[in-house]
Specification:
About 55% of the residues lie in helices and about 0% in strands. The protein is mainly alpha-helical.
Length: about 100
């Protein structure tokens, strides 16, 4: 019983210390004013991958689905070919699909 009480007290002490550390880390500093961060309208908005947003493609969904189905068929054929005759060249070979895998 004494061992249980000792473990319980140590756990509560650890919980209290953890709560105090978490409260201190997440406390917002009210004494420091928040800087007014607004983007400068004179500078262009910088993007990570592209300078301008890409235009939405006007390709019908049926065409995209047909391309995906063709890609899946080619990948399945390559997998079946590897299962029948496993070689290092067939494992790392590319299919004729226009999609990069």
């Amino acid at each position: 019983m004494a061992m249980f009480l000792m473990v319980l007290c140590m756990s509560l002490l650890a919980l209290a210390v953890t709560m105090m550390a978490f409260a201190g880390a997440t406390r917002v500093q009210a004494s420091q004013p928040q800087p007014d961060v607004r983007p400068n309208p004179e500078l262009p908005v910088q993007r990570f991958f592209a300078d301008a947003p890409a235009a939405q493609p006007t390709v019908p969904v049926s065409v995209l689905l047909a391309q995906i189905e063709q890609h899946i068929r080619l990948e399945q054929a390559a997998a079946e070919s590897f299962i029948e005759h496993p070689t290092a060249a067939s494992l790392h070979g590319r299919t004729t699909s226009p999609f990069i895998h």
